[in-house]
Amino acid sequence: MYQRIFLEDLNSTFQIRKIRELYELKTNNRDKPINIKLPFSLNEDVATFAGMFPDGSIIKDLKRIYFTQKKDDRQIRLFGRLLKKLFRPKSKIFFREGHNAKEVFINSQTLAIFCYKILGMNKSDEEMRVPRWVYNSKKSVIRSYLKQAFNAEAYVAKNLREIRFITKDHNYAQDLQKLLLLIDINSKIQPRIGGGGIRPQLQYRLSIYGKENFRKFKDVGFSIPLHKKRLEKMTKFILH
Predict the structure, then answer these.
(1) pLDDT at 201
(2) Residue 49's CATH number
(3) Dist CA 30 CA 98 (whole Å)
(4) Is the pTM of the predicted complex or chain greater than 0.90?
(5) Mean pLDDT, the chain cut into blocks of 10 residues (240 residues total)
(6) Per-residue confidence (pLDDT) for residue 73, from 0 to 100
(7) The domain boundary residue, chosen from 93, 126, 159
(8) pLDDT at res. 198
(9) One domain, residues 108 and 182
(10) Of the candidates 154, 179, 207, 213, which lies 20 to 30 Å from 169 by C-alpha distance?
(11) Which of 104, 126, 148 is the endpoint of a domain?
(12) Distance between CA atoms of 134 and 142, rounded to whole angstroms?
């Protein structure tokens, strides 16, 4: 059973009306609505969407959501599909070429507030954290969140003996470590100086080592081709 969001959880935040099998949500009369099913299930699709936000953001004024991708165009298309499937927004979804990257974004205060206040996702001026509902979800939901988060900020080391996740947010590294433990994967967190440029910054490296941890991480996996190929190479090298 998935965790769910009910009508009474939304009444104080949105203007709501039922249209056939969907519920239309708006924050005000000027904003275009989103349309969701209720109860709203916090399933693998929602976890996938939330897990993509190391490469995305809710703008701090709560009027836009965007996602940027340098590694894999399919992630851009996935983000767009999830916006449509989960929220059926009336606002237009924009796709464009950014600086050395592709972007997808939507100008929707209603959607931004839903993601921030209801789904517990962070704004651009806040530290990245795992939404609290993910911890209490079934393992398939936890794996869906982790897969997208690791797609964004992780890779398999060239020596094929470490899966490495890099973040500037220490609390986020600890959040991910707790999620990994929920699916019986152990990890270590170490500080490092990185980021390049004129002003290198303090970062945190979450590392997964060991045959049993790698075996279990296969159930999380990567979807970005380069990472996926290296993980497959690692598992052949280490596990056989």
Answers:
(1) 87
(2) 3.10.28.10
(3) 29
(4) yes
(5) 97 96 95 97 98 96 94 91 98 89 95 98 96 98 98 92 95 98 98 76 95 94 90 80
(6) 87
(7) 126
(8) 67
(9) no
(10) 213
(11) 126
(12) 6
* Whether 85 and 170 share a structural domain: no
Q: What is the 3-state secondary structure (H, E, C) of the chain?
A: CCCEECHHHCCCCCEEEEECCEEEEECCCCCCCEEECCCEECCHHHHHHHHCHHHEEECCCCCCEEEEECCCHHHHHHHHHHHHHHHCCCCCEEEEECCCCEEEEECCHHHHHHHHHHCCCCECCCCCCCCHHHHCCCHHHHHHHHHHHHHHHEEECCCCCCEEEEECCHHHHHHHHHHHHHCCCCCEEEEEEECCCCCCEEEEEEEECCHHHHHHHCCCCCCCHHHHHHHHHHHHHHHC
173: its two tokens: 């590294």
Can you tell me which residue has the tokens 């009474």?
8
Domain that holds residue 58: 4-126
Cα separation of the two ends of the chain:
36
Q: How many domains does the chain have?
A: 2
pLDDT value of position 186:
98
